[in-house]
Design a protein that fits this description.
Number of strands: 0
Order of helices and strands: HHHHHHHHHHHHHHHHH
Helix content: 55-70%
Largest sheet: none
Strand content: under 5%
């Protein structure tokens, strides 16, 4: 069982080190000329790249360690503790049980102190920085990977979530993995990527349903622009329907029917809304969390990549990121008139933001090199 799972996960791990595209002929020549006298290829650039990644991860870990035990629980963290302790009770029900079940299991090994309750978000936060590097490296290249990972490591939004005993960094991590799986699944049409996505979509939705919000736009962008940047309508492949979209739609329908038959549909809504003023403050709150400069850079990067998308996959990524952010914010705005929503609920769209900035920087740097 473990061996089979390792074989399935191996291609995903390899994407962190293998280039998305073959290097141009001049790069191959430069690589051949850099061989050592004994004939062994030098790997200095790879070692340097991995050292930079390690440095970014250490920076992310160091920044996130500060404050794990400094402050007492906030109100929402106490809700995590309450719901984690209630797991297993006969009347316990939650539409987002994954994180609470995980914390419930961990509470059998450690006391419910702020440090230990915040440790899983810390681990997921550092892992999210690494997955951002993998995703950006796959889409754009090494420079974009370093820029995107560094942006996440220093992000006040992601940094705060990594020191907060809630599920937000897990949502970020799952979203980044799903973006990578969808790209590889569509490009390579392999069942393993579709099936892994099929596993992670329900896991993410049961962590918090807002994970799904950007994927309405992401899937649309993925099938409106080809990998070569051609606009059109590109339907999912037969394998995509069989191994991902068909089962996923069936699972969503069955889940809704289960809630309906159990009389639990009210569980997806909060009892009291916050009114129009709260809805109008939603987008400014998101911009404040990520900082206006980052929001502007991400938007400029997406437009630049959409306009100058000469590299393979650039224009498609721009469409994915732009439509994903629009769908995430749009759905939250619509739902804000029915239930309470918060800026944190846009966490699953953040990988789109930082990878787009990384790609923007890399393509501008490449353009200035000529």
């Amino acid at each position: 069982m473990n061996g089979a799972l390792a074989r399935w996960l191996r291609p995903l791990a390899l994407s962190a080190t293998l280039p998305a595209e073959a290097p141009p002929p001049d790069a191959r020549a430069a690589t051949r000329s850099a061989r050592s006298p004994r004939g062994g290829a030098r790997t200095g650039w790879r070692v340097s790249s991995l050292h930079l990644l390690l440095g970014i991860l250490l920076l992310a870990a160091g920044l996130r360690l500060v404050g794990l035990a400094t402050f007492p629980f906030e109100q929402d963290e106490l809700y995590t503790l309450r719901d984690a302790l209630r797991v297993g009770e006969g009347n316990y029900f939650s539409v987002r049980p994954v994180y609470y079940v995980m914390q419930h299991l961990l509470l059998t090994f450690h006391p419910p102190t702020p440090f230990f309750m915040r440790l899983p978000p810390f681990v997921f936060g550092v892992a999210g920085v690494g997955l951002t590097w993998v995703l950006a490296r796959r889409v754009f290249g090494t420079t974009a990977a370093h820029v995107a990972a560094l942006m996440v490591a220093l992000s006040p939004w992601h940094l705060g979530a990594s020191q907060f005993a809630r599920y937000y960094t897990l949502i970020y991590l799952l979203a980044a993995v799903l973006y990578l799986l969808l790209l590889r699944g569509v490009d390579e049409d392999r069942p393993r990527y579709f099936l892994l996505a099929l596993l992670l979509f329900p896991l993410g939705a049961l962590t918090h349903p807002t994970l799904l919000f950007p994927f309405a736009g992401v899937v649309l962008g993925l099938h409106l622009v080809s990998r070569e940047g051609r606009p059109g309508l590109f339907w999912p492949s037969r394998r995509g329907w069989i191994y991902l979209w068909g089962p996923l739609l069936a699972a969503a329908l069955l889940g809704f029917l289960a809630l309906l038959l159990a009389g639990r549909t009210e569980a997806v809504w909060n009892k009291d809304g916050r009114g129009l003023a709260a809805s109008l403050r939603l987008v400014p709150a998101m911009v404040q969390w990520m900082s206006p400069e980052i929001a502007a850079a991400a938007f400029a990067g997406m437009l630049f990549l959409l306009w100058r998308g000469r590299q393979s996959g650039d224009r498609r990524w721009a469409a994915i990121a732009l439509l994903g952010c629009i769908s995430s914010v749009g759905i939250l705005l619509v739902l804000s008139f029915r239930t309470d929503v918060y800026a944190d609920y846009a966490m699953s769209a953040l990988p789109l933001v930082y990878v787009s900035i990384g790609g923007f920087v890399q393509r501008v740097r490449e353009a200035m090199a000529f």
